[in-house]
Amino acid sequence: MFKENLANLRAYSPGPSVEEIKRTYGLKRLVKLDSNENVYGASPKVGEAIAQAALLPALYPDCRDQDVRSELSWMLNVREEQFLFGSGLDEIIVLISRTFLASGDNIVMAWPTFYEYYCHAQIEGAEPKKVPCDADGRHDLSGMLAAVDEATKVVWICNPNNPTGTYINDRELADFVEKVPEDVVIVLDEAYIDFVTAGDFPRSLDLLKDHPNIVVLRTFSKSFGLASFRIGYAIGQSRLIDEIDKVRPPFNNPRLSQVAAFAALQDIDFMKDCTRKNQEVLAMTTAFLDDRKIPYYPTQTNFIYIKAGDPKGVAEQCKKKGFLINPFQDGVRITIGKMDDMKELLAVLETALSETSSKPSI
Ligand SMILES: *Cc1c(COP(=O)(O)O)cnc(C)c1O
Predict the structure, then answer these.
(1) For the modification N6-(pyridoxal phosphate)lysine, which residues carry it (predicted)?
(2) Are 134 and 81 in contact (CB under 8 A)?
(3) pTM to 2 decimals?
(4) Does 110 contact ligand 1 (Cβ within 6 A)?
(5) How far apart are alpha carbons 190 and 222 in whole angstroms?
(6) 341 C-beta closer than 6 A to ligand 1
(7) Closest protein CA for atom 11 of ligand 1
(8) Which residue's CA is the closest to the ligand 1 atom numbered 1?
(9) 221 within ligand 1 shell (Cβ under 6 A)
(10) Residue 216: which region, alpha, beta or left (left: phi > 0; alpha: psi -120 to 50)?
């Protein structure tokens, strides 16, 4: 009775709750640095706007997210019909997969990268082709290009990449985009764009005019601190956006999520302040790691990937000391916390790295 292509998938496992972990380990405090949420929260304007909003619980929300749409259109200088809103980028990834993929197709993606690209290709019966990141944790663009074939429908570029934090620059991306066939959709997932400081980071919106096959993804979950509201968006040429809109459930963004996102856009200073603090703590973090010759990938985001011989063991030790971080295959991904938390965590991490196994060399 079950679909064959779901056989090898597992449901997302959130792990034990914060309260459960605190109880298990006898902790007074557990600092969540495992999901790249905004550790500074959201603008106070969001709370005010929510409190003042008429609740209207019996009415369906605006199916076009008109207020947020107009505001973003003005801010980003992109036409209103070029936006598509989703219940987080998670849903937009589902919608893109649903729109373009069928059995017999394939997608090309980096590895490691955001897992949802993989998951939804499988659900649609398409083959996910994983192209390993290079030794510097960056997308191997020539490898990805070589993986594109007749059956490729979507290429996923996570820029900057989650979990490695590395980025593709403007020249590399422009070159890549020129070489990918025009009938292959190129998705640029820019969930972390507001944290980027590199001067040569691509201006992806400028690519849209000449490339009807590009979709850019952005979210309110990270830099704006609205992960709980589940709102993100895609930008592309309207022909492509209209196609994805055919598979979108019409009322996919609750009214209060739209109110929250609109309010967050009225306080860009708050968001900028968060990204500035992130820079400060990140600088402290990399100085600490450099000092001790602990290898990591340079990051353009609010998280950092630190190499570890026994990632699970390191994450477990950090958890016992009150810090939740995320283990991957050959390292741990840590959200850049507040200054004091991060200093404390780095001390815990240093001990954990030396106790679990010898440090891998770069
Ligand atoms: C967090 C994240 C998302 C999902 O964001 P939501 O808008 O909260 O669903 C998508 N892509 C990447 C790379 C992310 O890190």
Answers:
(1) 222
(2) no
(3) 0.96
(4) no
(5) 11
(6) no
(7) 191
(8) 191
(9) yes
(10) beta
